[in-house]
Amino acid sequence: MRIAVYPGSFDPFTKGHVDILERSSKLFDRIIVAVVSNVHKKSLFTLEERVDMIQEATRHVPNVEVDWFSGLVVNYVKEKGACAIIRGLRTVADFEYEMQMAMMNRYLLPEVDTVFIMSSSDYYYISSSGVKEAALLGGPVSGLVPPNVEQRLKEKLTELRKEAR
């Protein structure tokens, strides 16, 4: 069985992430979307919220499961018996960063390859940080995220506004 891991913070999960996942799901028997638990990074959504949103947004992709991890991605990949790490690319800057990470991961775990999936032209401009900024400033995000994520963004913003009072 060919297992791949698609790691990321996914804060929030976007239509670009869905696109990469749908397309890469045709290449592997099983894909594990692995949400990174990083205590040093301030996230808009909790780890549990991100896992829930991704599970709901990917129900239509039968060979996908959602999990979380902390620490080195190569340790998680090895634990899961995966043969590949999936990474989405939008820009040349993404490529430079991702290539360095892929080479480091290759050094740490030579038997696992990184598979780069180019973003569809419909989504290449979408980033989680851009979505968060647009949402926090009152901009529309419906075309950028799955419907369930849009709803959770609205709820989170309402919650943050109440806390700020």
From TrEMBL:
Give the principal location in a single coarse category: cytoplasm
Residues bound to substrate: 9, 41, 73, 87
Subunit organization: Homohexamer.
The site (Transition state stabilizer) lies at 17
- Please indicate if the UniProt record lists Nucleotide-binding as a keyword: yes
Q: Which family does it belong to?
A: Belongs to the bacterial CoaD family.
> HAMAP family from the xrefs?
PPAT_bact (MF_00151)
**Which PANTHER family does the entry mention?**
PHOSPHOPANTETHEINE ADENYLYLTRANSFERASE
What is the residue range of the signal peptide feature? none
Q: Subcellular location, in the record's words?
A: Cytoplasm
GO MF terms here are:
ATP binding; pantetheine-phosphate adenylyltransferase activity
EC numbers for this chain: 2.7.7.3
Protein name per Swiss-Prot or TrEMBL: Phosphopantetheine adenylyltransferase
Give the UniProt record's GO annotations in the biological process aspect: coenzyme A biosynthetic process
The keyword Nucleotidyltransferase is assigned to this record: yes
**Which keywords accompany this UniProt record?**
ATP-binding, Coenzyme A biosynthesis, Cytoplasm, Magnesium, Nucleotide-binding, Nucleotidyltransferase, Transferase
What cofactor is needed? Mg(2+)
Q: Which organism is it from?
A: Syntrophothermus lipocalidus (strain DSM 12680 / TGB-C1)
Q: Which reaction does it catalyse?
A: (R)-4'-phosphopantetheine + ATP + H(+) = 3'-dephospho-CoA + diphosphate
List each copy of the Cytidyltransferase-like domain by range. 5-133
What is the purpose of this protein?
A: Reversibly transfers an adenylyl group from ATP to 4'-phosphopantetheine, yielding dephospho-CoA (dPCoA) and pyrophosphate.
Query: InterPro entries under this entry?
Result: Cyt_trans-like (IPR004821), PPAT (IPR001980), Rossmann-like_a/b/a_fold (IPR014729)
